[in-house]
Amino acid sequence: MDTVARLLAARLSEVFGQQVIVDNRAGANGSLAAEITAKSPPDGYTLMLGAVGNLGVNQFFIKQMNYDAAADLAPITQVISSSSVLVTHPALPVKSVKELIALARAKPGTLAHGSSGVGGAGHLAGALFQSMTQTKMLHVPYKGGAPAMVDIIAGQVQFSFASTPTAIPNITSGRIRALAVTLAQRTRLLPQTPTIAEAGVSGYESSSWYGVVAPARTPQPIISRLAKVIVQIINRADATDALLKVGLEPHTSSPDVFGAYIKSEVAKWGRIIKELGITAN
């Protein structure tokens, strides 16, 4: 996310002739950043690069939210839609999604999958997989994708739905094995790796996405102007190439389309979270 934010900041600075500063505010799966944005003046000078956590599912995990994503934040455009990659430690005796499902069913509750944290893209991808395959697996949340990957490589956890940027170098080196990607279509970053739907779980789709929002009540002309500029920036050849090099796939949209997508993601993941009884603890 920091990579995308800095790419946008540099190019927005060029367009508007004003310095755009990246202010990383980690905490509570992005809720701190969202709260700060929601309470900022609606003048177009404070924007947030958000994700499925702070724009959607945190409401299901955090009892006392200090902001309402739907009411307090205005969508501008989606900028990234990237696949997670289902990866395993090479010692795990599975080489396909079907074999992983069979092993999980044979040993319910024993296979562990690591993620970057509760409510993150990797966690949700695993929850959807568990729901659709009727398996029971142990979720192990980490404080970020990097420490989760360290333990997958070490064999402390058996598999993960890892981010593409984190996974690809370790797949290439043979430290981990790629079984499938989580998008509905194959990713150009791993063209030989099937989708989970292709590998036998029909209808499966999970995306790791980022998008830009502003405080609610930001005037519509400002929202429209920012959307137009950001879409142009992301779709420039140099920006697209820079994102692909770090394993991220550009995906832009209008404010209305992005808003509708956020609502669909909230509905989808809210159902899964409630079905599996997932909590922050």
Question: What labels describe this entry?
Answer:
alpha/beta; 7-stranded mixed β-sheet; globular; 281 residues; 11 helices; 43% helix; single chain
Entry summary:
43% of the residues lie in helices and 17% in strands. It is α/β, with parallel strands linked by helices and 281 residues long.
C-alpha termini separation:
25 Å
- Provide the gyration radius in Å: 19 Å
Based on secondary structure, the structural category is alpha/beta
Task: Please give the share of residues in helix.
Answer: 40-55%
Taking the sheet with the most strands, its summary is: 7 strands, mixed
Task: State the total count of DSSP E strands.
Answer: 7
Sequence stretches where pLDDT stays below 50 over 5 or more residues: none
The chain-level mean pLDDT equals 94
- Determine the number of helices (DSSP H or I, runs of at least 4 residues): 11
**Overall geometry:** globular
What proportion of the residues form beta strands (DSSP E)? 15-25%
- SSE succession: HHEHHEHEHEHEHEEHHH
Outline the fold blueprint.
Layout: H1 2-16, H2 31-38, E1 48-51, H3 52-55, H4 69-72, E2 73-88, H5 97-106, E3 112-115, H6 121-133, E4 138-141, H7 145-154, E5 159-163, H8 164-172, E6 177-181, E7 207-215, H9 220-235, H10 237-245, H11 255-276
Parallel strand pairs: 3-4, 3-5
Antiparallel strand pairs: 1-7, 2-5, 2-6, 2-7
